[in-house]
Amino acid sequence: MRALVMYESMFGNTEAVARAVADGMARHAEVTIADIGAMPMVSGMDVIVVGGPTHAFGLSRPATRQDAVRQGATRRDAATVGLREWMDASADLHGVAAAVFDTKVDKPFSGSAARKAERRLRRLGCRLLVPSESFHVVGTPGPLADGERERARRWGEAVAAAAVAAAQRT
């Protein structure tokens, strides 16, 4: 099974989660990891996993990414390309198995980029393997909250197991 884990990360926290998810999937899949800024292609992949930071209750936008740059974001070209733009540019993803995660500050009413991305991926035709997941950061620049890397690795294992089970049913 071939898997692509794509991430949008401003301060490195979402990238750290993506890498942990990829580690969790590696037992069941050949995993490629890519920054969303590279506009990765999904052709030839059996499963995709996308993740991004929650900005202003949802997916980042150019203005929220520019604000992150002002706060010290380390991602190159952070203000120009994000998960939203990748989905806007994506062709039909009919039948592609997918999973979605986000990073966010653990506060009530903080919204979820993952839930927004999940809806958009469904509209593009993806089959979602598992419910979206949120991983918590301590403050806007992070770091990740204690235990989140390990939780992300376990979630990646669950995504891969769901992909294997789905493939066996077809």
Describe the structure.
The chain is α/β, with parallel strands linked by helices and 170 residues long. 36% of the residues lie in helices and 21% in strands. It is built from 5 helices and 6 strands. Strands 1, 2, 3, 4, 5 and 6 form a 6-stranded parallel β-sheet that branches. The protein is globular and about 45 Å long. The two termini are 14 Å apart.
Topology:
Elements: E1 2-7, H1 13-25, E2 30-35, E3 47-53, H2 62-70, H3 83-89, E4 97-105, H4 113-123, E5 127-128, E6 133-137, H5 148-169
Parallel strand pairs: 1-2, 1-3, 3-4, 4-5, 4-6
Sum up the structure in keywords.
170 residues, 21% strand, six-stranded parallel β-sheet, 6 strands
Give the gist of this structure:
The protein has 170 residues and is of the alpha/beta class. The chain is 36% helix and 21% strand.
- Overall mean confidence score, pLDDT: 91
Q: What percent of the residues sit in helical stretches (DSSP H or I)?
A: 25-40%
DSSP strand count: 6
General form: globular
Radius of gyration: 15 Å
- What percent strand? 15-25%
N-to-C series of helices and strands: EHEEHHEHEEH
What structural category arises from helix and sheet content?
alpha/beta
- Uncertain segments are none
Number of helices: 5
